[in-house]
Specification:
Elements lengths: L2 E6 L2 E6 L4 H7 L23 E4 L5 E3 L10 E3 L3 H15 L16 H8 L23 E3 L9 H9 L6 E3 L6 E3 L16 H5 L5 E3 L3 H9 L4 E6 L3 H4 L13 H10 L4 E4 H22 L5 E2 L4 H10 L13 H17 L6 E7 L3 H5 L16 E4 H10 L21 H4 L6 H15 L17 E8 L2 E9 L1 H16 L8 E5 L17 H16 L10 H11 L5 H7 L12
Helix pairs in contact: 9-11, 9-15
Length: about 575
């Protein structure tokens, strides 16, 4: 692509042809305010805050959507532009509640930040608030239409990034809202609870269902013994909430914080990731050698499972029956661990800190999530909730001394850690599947071909002469491409050209899940992933089957992968779900 020469406020800049004025300005060190723009999305130009002047012309352009051309010169700020932007903000605020102090986004709201930058102190327009009530029907996400600023990000994410179409524009003018078709409740819509709408919303119009009070109540209840597990990506996601660089690994500080919050024991979902690999990897080998639906599809992402149950029920036999790592840990906590520690499982209150809003739904999705005889995971908090809980409890996170997790469910391999990044499940599975197939250990355990943010990665793995064709997909709109390919091959009586496929609902995988800190873009995704891969690299044990605590679990309790006990506690089944509830 050719290079063009432009000027931003008189500053000469060289950029690639087709670059937006907004990004050219960033290169020149000039910030243009935006509300509707997000790096993940196609420029929409709905808010109008990014208007700039084209020198030598009366033309006003929207910087987020306007491409540069050779010789273009723009003015991004003068008194007239300031006044127009200020008026736009005042108009937005005239239809937006002023209850910032009680809003879940207080301190992390893009509208609040810009209003402060512009020094807004008065409201010159008549306040006209919507009387629409919040939609709390979902177990994972709350929609509060009164706070919606009609930027359209949530609709773009849901339709373009995820391909789910649970949200759309409804109505016109002041009556416009973002809601499910026919104004259905969110729980009756195609929503898969991935939370990407909440992660991309600039204000408090969409957010995770806050359950911090439930944690506090359990921790204060003398009849309950709280144990907490943390997902792989929490160790690199939480750091941003405390001012640390993206990708900073804070695992052992997190363990310390959990104990300060009143937990009896600290466990790690990475242990469950290792356990998942043992079950899922053995299942794959069984399908390859004894027959079974191929390709096998991963099952650790609940939003993806929800999506396939709704949109591809005819392909559910391809989905691994292995539960997610979170659910495996919960089942083991209330059986093996409770017995080992002499704890009544009825008094054990199991909490999971997750990067994902869909995990709230998964924890009680059906009877399989009560395999222990109780609800296996009692409560799920997102990374954002966890950060708020730490701060509101008076814990100085950065000054905490590092602590270790509790054995045996706190021990894990590097393979368990990389579950949090797209391609991580595949890489972890390859490390162990190679051993299961060949009896040998993989010499180079790093599988570079499945890493990175390419949306669909395809390749093959050589297991000492046995070629296994694999694919890694992140983002549900891209999952559709491969699922349609599998469906077409099946209709033709053929097998799609894969044996094993990893699918994650969110771009980048769990490191950018719907419950992670706000502001994720591809730069942050790369930095968070790099933190996980660095943590893996320094691990003494890097393959799931080499985890001594996993070996002990099978010897003392589960017997072997896919045993009767393992199948009861660690596996599930699926059923088609109507896209729209009647």
């Amino acid at each position: 692509m050719s290079i063009v020469h432009v000027k931003i406020n008189g500053i000469p800049v060289e950029v690639e042809e087709g670059t937006s004025v907004l990004n050219a300005a960033k290169k020149a060190g000039v910030r243009i305010p935006t509300l509707c723009y997000h790096d993940d999305l196609k420029p929409f130009g709905s808010c109008g805050l990014c208007i700039v002047k084209q020198e030598g012309s009366a033309k006003i352009i929207r910087a987020c959507a306007a491409p540069v051309n050779e010789g273009l010169s723009v003015i991004t700020n003068d008194n007239e532009l300031f006044q127009v932007r200020k008026t736009i903000l005042e108009m937005i605020l005239s239809t937006h509640p002023s209850s910032c102090l009680s809003c879940i986004r207080n301190g992390e709201c893009e509208l609040q930040n810009i209003a402060a930058e512009f020094g807004l102190r008065e409201q010159p327009f008549e306040v006209r608030l919507s009387d629409a009530e919040p939609d709390t029907s979902s177990a994972s996400i709350v929609l509060d239409p009164q706070k919606c600023i009609k930027c359209g990000r949530c609709v773009q994410v849901c339709q373009d990034l995820q391909g789910v179409f649970a949200l759309e524009f409804i109505g016109r003018g002041d009556g416009t809202c973002m809601a499910p078709a026919a104004m259905l409740k969110l729980d009756d819509s195609p929503c898969v609870r991935c939370g990407q709408c909440a992660a991309h919303c600039p204000v408090g119009a969409i957010y995770e269902k806050d359950e911090i009070a439930d944690f506090r109540a359990a921790a204060a209840d003398p009849q309950k013994q709280v144990v907490v597990q943390i997902a792989p990506s929490i160790r690199v996601g939480l750091s941003e909430s405390f001012g640390l660089p993206a990708g900073t690994v804070t695992t052992k500080k997190i363990y310390a914080a959990i104990r300060r919050l009143g937990a009896m024991a600290v466990h790690d979902t990475n242990f469950g990731a290792d356990l998942t690999i043992m079950e899922e990897g053995t299942e794959l080998v069984h399908r390859l050698t004894n027959g079974g639906a191929l390709p096998q599809l991963t099952s650790c992402c609940p939003a993806w499972v929800d999506y396939v149950e709704k949109y591809y029920p005819d392909l559910l036999d391809h989905v691994s029956s292995a539960k997610s790592p979170m659910q495996m840990v919960g089942a083991i906590e209330k059986t093996f661990y409770a017995k080992k520690m002499g704890i009544d499982p009825a008094k054990l209150f199991t909490v999971a800190i997750m990067p994902c809003t869909a995990k709230k739904y998964e924890s009680d999705r059906d009877e399989h999530m009560h395999a222990s005889g109780f609800r296996d995971v009692d409560l799920v908090l997102t990374t954002r909730e966890f950060a708020r809980l730490i701060k509101s409890s008076g814990i100085d996170f950065l000054k905490l001394e590092e602590e270790e997790a509790d054995s045996p469910i706190g021990e894990y391999s590097g393979a368990g850690t990389i579950f949090g990044a797209t391609g991580g499940v595949m890489e972890a599975a390859v490390r162990t599947a190679y051993h299961l197939v060949t009896g040998d250990e993989l010499q180079d355990v790093e599988v570079a071909s499945v890493r990175g943010l390419t949306e669909i990665k395809k390749g093959s793995v050589d297991f000492a002469g046995t070629k296994v064709r694999v694919a890694v997909i992140h983002g549900l709109s891209h999952a559709k491409e491969v699922m349609d390919e599998i469906r077409a091959a099946k209709a033709a009586g053929e097998q799609a050209p894969y044996e094993f496929i990893e699918i994650m609902a969110c771009r980048g995988g769990c490191i950018a899940g719907g419950g992670q800190p706000y502001g994720a873009n591809d730069i942050l995704r790369e930095e968070r992933s790099a933190g996980l891969y660095a943590d893996d690299k320094q691990s003494h044990v890097r393959c799931s089957h080499q985890n001594a605590s996993i070996q002990q679990l099978y010897e003392e309790f589960l017997d072997k992968p896919l045993s009767e006990t393992a199948h009861h506690l660690l596996h599930t089944s699926y059923q088609g779900i109507p896209v729209y509830k009647a």
